[in-house]
């Protein structure tokens, strides 16, 4: 007789969240908040997937008058659509005291007391949007904080909590398949969107980033603008087997942080967006609250490390909602090596 193999049925995101609630790790409000974000990401996934057929590619605004966001960057149509979808979905959910987006100048409190909850949601609605028009992966990144006690109408200052205060972080990558990667502080787990059924199904429980790696991600066109420690670190990797590192390295750069971090969570590697002459005045290129902190939480929960090069990312005390930071994250031993180069050069 053919051997009967024990079938372990994959669980849905909904079931995973209910189990976390029963284990006392999240409450019903946070569970429902994550469900609302996941539902919004399905809508964004659908819009991204339509591509040119949906008329959603290209710049927002009118020809000759491109719309510019708070970061001083031209907005893509899909940046605006993704932001609207997330705003719309979350404003009436009842679990938030306020929300903040990379695409909006200021955070927004939830005005209606009947629809107000205790959490603060931050998101980058469509990260890597320079890749939209060329059909390369983009993503949504989000982070959840608690609204400070007694605050009913949170302002920007109430979001300025270090990354260690995050109660949940995640991203959705809109790639060949759409995947949601999530942590509520109990490991990092990956869910793949089953498009026919319309639900996220857990496909990896407990992602683990290998401690060592031979793969790095950096925009090498900025090389001449980097600081001395980064110059030395990358030069030594490029020197390969015969150099001080004694091994050959490979390089990958998607230019969508979500896709680069997803690769690192899947097979290891180190991602870096250091200070350079172009972004030094701003403190870095990537945003602490919408990009660096949620990714740092996910990476640490998968056994990796995340740093500014000089400080653990999650311990940075934010001073502004749209603050930028240098980023080094991924395989813990390689991040430690990058930190070591900073220590030696400082
Ligand atoms: P965005 O939020 O405006 O899309 O910018 C962030 C993106 C990251 O996804 C990516 O790592 C980086 O910018 C790419 O930068 P570069 O264009 O210098 O390669
Ligand atoms: Mg971004």
TrEMBL record:
Substrate binds at residues 127-130, 219, 285. Residues 12-204 form the Fructose-1-6-bisphosphatase class I N-terminal domain. Its cofactor is Mg(2+). The keyword Transport does not apply. One of its GO terms (biological process) is fructose 1,6-bisphosphate metabolic process. Keywords: Carbohydrate metabolism, Cytoplasm, Hydrolase, Magnesium, Metal-binding. It is found in: Cytoplasm. Coiled coil: none annotated. Its main location: cytoplasm. Residues 209-342 form the Fructose-1-6-bisphosphatase class 1 C-terminal domain. Its EC number is 3.1.3.11. It catalyses: beta-D-fructose 1,6-bisphosphate + H2O = beta-D-fructose 6-phosphate + phosphate. InterPro entries: FBPase_C_dom (IPR044015), FBPase_class-1 (IPR000146), FBPase_N (IPR033391), FBPtase (IPR028343). Pfam families: FBPase, FBPase_C. Binds 2 magnesium ions per subunit. GO terms for molecular function: fructose 1,6-bisphosphate 1-phosphatase activity; magnesium ion binding. PANTHER family: FRUCTOSE-1,6-BISPHOSPHATASE-RELATED, SEDOHEPTULOSE-1,7-BISPHOSPHATASE, CHLOROPLASTIC. Belongs to the FBPase class 1 family. This is Fructose-1,6-bisphosphatase class 1.
């Amino acid at each position: 007789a053919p051997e009967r193999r024990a079938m372990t049925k994959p669980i849905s995101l909904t079931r995973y969240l209910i189990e976390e609630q029963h284990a006392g790790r999240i409450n019903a409000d946070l569970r429902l908040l994550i469900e609302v974000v996941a539902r919004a990401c399905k809508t964004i996934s659908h819009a991204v997937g339509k591509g040119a057929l949906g008329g959603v590619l290209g710049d927002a605004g009118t020809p000759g008058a491109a719309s510019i966001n708070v970061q001083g960057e031209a907005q893509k149509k899909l940046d605006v659509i993704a932001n609207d979808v997330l705003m719309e979905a979350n404003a009436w959910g009842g679990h938030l005291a306020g929300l903040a987006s990379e695409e909006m100048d200021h955070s927004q409190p939830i005005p209606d007391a009947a629809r107000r909850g205790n959490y603060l949601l931050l998101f980058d609605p469509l990260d890597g949007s320079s890749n939209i028009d060329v059909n390369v992966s983009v993503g949504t990144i989000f982070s959840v904080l608690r609204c400070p006690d007694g605050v009913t109408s949170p302002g920007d200052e109430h979001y300025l909590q270090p990354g260690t205060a995050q109660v949940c972080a995640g991203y959705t990558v809109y790639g060949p398949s759409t995947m949601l990667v999530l942590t509520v502080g109990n490991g990092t787990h990956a869910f793949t969107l089953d498009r026919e059924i319309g639900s996220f199904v857990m496909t990896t429980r407990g992602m683990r980033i290998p401690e060592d790696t031979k793969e790095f991600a950096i925009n090498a066109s900025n090389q001449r603008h980097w600081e001395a420690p980064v110059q030395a670190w990358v030069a030594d990797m490029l020197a390969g087997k015969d150099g001080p590192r004694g091994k050959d390295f490979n390089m990958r750069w998607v230019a969508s942080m979500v896709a680069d971090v997803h690769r690192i969570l899947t097979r290891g590697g180190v991602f870096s967006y250091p200070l350079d002459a172009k972004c030094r005045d701003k403190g870095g290129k990537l945003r602490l609250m919408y990009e660096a902190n949620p990714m740092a939480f996910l990476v640490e929960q998968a056994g990796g490390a995340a740093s500014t090069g000089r400080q653990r990312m999650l311990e940075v005390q934010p001073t502004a909602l749209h603050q930028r930071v240098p980023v080094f994250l991924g395989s813990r031993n390689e991040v430690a090596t990058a930190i070591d180069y900073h220590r030696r050069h400082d």
